[in-house]
């Protein structure tokens, strides 16, 4: 190296550090290594929510449609003898599947029905309570919210057929005028 260039070396180093920065960009994200990603997965349960698209007992897989419209994707998870709630997995049911990754495959650990939440101001009534209302002949308005074809096949005595689409379309117009009368809705199963 030329002795005349030696005094310029510290200057070149300082210019290089100033140009590129010694600590890198201030907003740079830390690259997540596989170990960091695995640690993050341990803290959060892996979960799919959606509707069961299909179940294969032979292949031991459950397909679930996640998302809506154009964003919807069908995801597949495997299940085994340790999976809880496999009996809840039936085509068309809304479920929540908790799963874990084993190698590159997703394995369901728990399958639960995704039940609707009751709106504020409403309460759930159990079958024995409804039977008591019927036996005591207390005034209430009973609504069968299933499709009309199901109502026509069979329904509870005194039930009025008001399928969900009709209720959504006409609203309170199909309900009793007496706003103090309790209204009991029932359908084909847990929702």
TrEMBL record:
Alphabetical UniProt keywords: Signal
- PROSITE patterns listed in its UniProt record: PROKAR_LIPOPROTEIN (PS51257), RHODANESE_3 (PS50206)
Q: Which residues form the signal peptide?
A: 1-28
CDD domains from the entry? RHOD (cd00158)
Q: Where is the Rhodanese domain?
A: 136-189
Q: Name one Pfam family in it.
A: Rhodanese
- Entry protein name: Rhodanese domain-containing protein
Organism field: Desulfobulbus propionicus (strain ATCC 33891 / DSM 2032 / VKM B-1956 / 1pr3)
